[in-house]
Amino acid sequence: MEERLMVRLESAVARLEALSLRGGSVVESGGYDAAVMDPSVVAFEDFMGTYFGRVSSAGEKIGGQVLEVTKILERALNVQKELLIKIKQTQKPDLAGLAAFLKPLNEVIMKANSMTEGRRSDFFNHLKAAADSFTALAWIAYTGKDCGMSMPIAHVEESWQMAEFYNNKILVEYKSKDPSHVEWAKALKELYLPGLRDYVKSHYPLGPVWSATAKAKAAAPSAPAPPPPPPASLFSSESSSPSSSKPKEGMAAVFQEISSGKPVTAGLRKVTDNMKTKNRADRTGVVGASEKESHTSTPSFSKAGPPKLELQMGRKWVVENQIGRKNLVIDDCDAKQSVYIFGCKDSVLQVQGKVNNITIDKCTKMGLVFMDVVAACEIVNCSGVEVQCQGSAPTISVDNTGGCQLYLSKDSLGTSITTAKTSEINVLVPGAEPDDDLVEHALPQQFIHMFKDGHFETTPVSHSGG
């Protein structure tokens, strides 16, 4: 109760300070105060006081980077609250205006993501869980069913599923080591489920409700805006004319023809003998060389975009949309750089050097050969991939992937392999002798959960032919 009261008092003080900086009075700020006192804004403050207080308390006990990312989370929640207030005073913007409107929130999310880059810290799972959870706050960008996002409630739930993978790692790692970390992980989950989800469900199940009465902001006198072009209507200019004045198109024309009472076959052409395929002289049954080549040629790039293999900002190698390329090589790399492989198909990439981490995302029949990674090699949303580690890798993570062959060297036998929502994962390791063939091990994908002594015991399913 005291934490909720403190949050409300701090919010009130922040509003008064902002008002004094603007040089206005309480009476003059009627529109802002009315928005601040809106039930949805007040409920958001209550939500923060109820759920974030536990996250903050646990973060202070842990300190370090966990406390730092917790403070960034608090900043993101406060930014979202200010955006909710502005929504009450702002007309619904266009796409460019929406991007500018959400820029403060995006900057905070980018700051959280930057903490997960570079050398992996001891609290990587905390940072990754928090950074991935920030995506849930983007529910405020929902503008309708055609915006490319899930509905706000579903968006919050789906976003937390991404963060829960790392949040569960915290629970497992610190279960018997430090209860403060377990408390932080549980509080983080409750912040979103049920916290944010229930708030969105109660106040914005269909997305933000923009002001219908707010006036558009006037342009600055020194730089007057040019007159706007005539508004582009969703309907053509001819739509104002009576529907009977022009012929119907598409399926409307089909139904009009059927209901006209005329014979359905009245407009069809008669097929004569010389028009039948078996009697046509131009169909020889032989496929020309040029026609065959055009059908068998392999596309050189993905429909998603042009192929890329480049170093961005000196920190990140990006390999995208490569199709049918078996000779991709990255040789000028160092331990501070990361490699991100996306949307590739039927290709092979060699990373000839030590890098910080490697991520393979949404690739099909992709081959990867690498030497060493400092942090981890992550395989996400892939199908039929093969990965060979010739050096060492602390962690290999496979998530939402079907069909994956992992080849480990003797130096990487101590690798920790984590799987989630996977199938057909096989690991090949060196034999006992140098000349022995690789030994294949299939990782289990079916498990039995038995409730014993107050907790569940999980064991992989074993199949025997006896």
TrEMBL record:
Coiled coil: none annotated. It holds the Pfam family CAP_N-CM. Residues 219-250, 276-307 are annotated as: Disordered. Residues 306-443 form the C-CAP/cofactor C-like domain. SUPFAM superfamilies: C-terminal domain of adenylylcyclase associated protein, N-terminal domain of adenylylcyclase associated protein, CAP. PROSITE patterns: C_CAP_COFACTOR_C, CAP_1. Residues 223-232 have a biased composition (Pro residues). GO terms for biological process: actin filament organization; cAMP-mediated signaling. Residues 233-245 have a biased composition (Low complexity). This is Adenylyl cyclase-associated protein. It comes from Salix purpurea.
